[in-house]
């Protein structure tokens, strides 16, 4: 007896007009074009990393952009690349919580026979807001190492920096895993 009736007391086989209208309305809704809001890709707020990459002015010139230090006295023991690298780990881009060495911004550390140091570096982006001060901070940090002579920092844009140049520690610190 109960199997022939639904919960509203009607026989299951009896079509109800409002049910047909409801089904018809739903199928018509599915056929209608969606609003432009529903079809657009979602918009996300820029991450701090993306904002840091934005061009904030003129592209800094390449070439030797910073100097520090004094000539070494003959016979002075020369600093090692490792010591200079450790000193460079004290220099941070103020917008990124990772030092410039771990970020992979230092491309070369060349120690001349007289103790002079030639550093080749880049920045995360040509419009980096700290482009005017970061190379001098690098030169000063290298000059703070005992056994270094005159320091020259050369800024280059080729090869361009990318996230693959970062150390594993830097990637972990920035949540890139």
Can you give a write-up of this model?
It is a single chain. The chain is α+β, with helices and mostly antiparallel strands. It folds into two domains: 35 residues, no CATH class; 125 residues, Fe-S cluster assembly (FSCA) (GMP Synthetase, Chain A, domain 3). The protein is built from seven helices and four strands. Strands 1-4-3-2 form a four-stranded mixed sheet. Strand 3, helix 6 and strand 4 form a beta-alpha-beta unit. The longest helix has 15 residues. The two termini are 63 Å apart.
Question: What's the arrangement of secondary structure elements?
Answer:
Layout: H1 17-31, H2 36-39, H3 48-53, E1 63-68, H4 81-88, H5 100-103, E2 106-111, E3 117-121, H6 134-143, E4 151-155, H7 168-173
Parallel strand pairs: 3-4
Antiparallel strand pairs: 1-4, 2-3
């Amino acid at each position: 007896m109960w199997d022939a009736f639904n919960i509203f007391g009607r026989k299951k086989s009896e079509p109800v007009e409002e049910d047909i209208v409801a089904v018809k309305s739903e199928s018509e809704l599915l056929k209608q074009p969606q609003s432009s809001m529903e079809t657009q890709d979602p918009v996300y707020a820029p991450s701090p990393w993306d904002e840091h990459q934005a061009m904030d002015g003129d592209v800094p010139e390449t070439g030797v952009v910073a100097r520090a230090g004094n000539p070494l006295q003959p016979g002075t023991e020369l600093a090692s690349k490792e010591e200079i690298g450790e000193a460079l780990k004290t220099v941070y881009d103020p917008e990124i919580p990772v030092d410039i060495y771990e970020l992979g911004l230092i491309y070369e550390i060349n120690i001349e026979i007289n103790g002079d140091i030639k550093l080749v570096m880049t920045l995360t982006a040509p419009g980096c807001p700290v482009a005017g001060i970061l190379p001098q901070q690098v030169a000063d940090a290298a000059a703070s190492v005992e056994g270094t002579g005159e320091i020259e920092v050369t800024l280059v844009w080729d090869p361009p920096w990318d996230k693959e140049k970062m150390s594993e520690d830097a990637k972990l610190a920035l949540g890139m895993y």
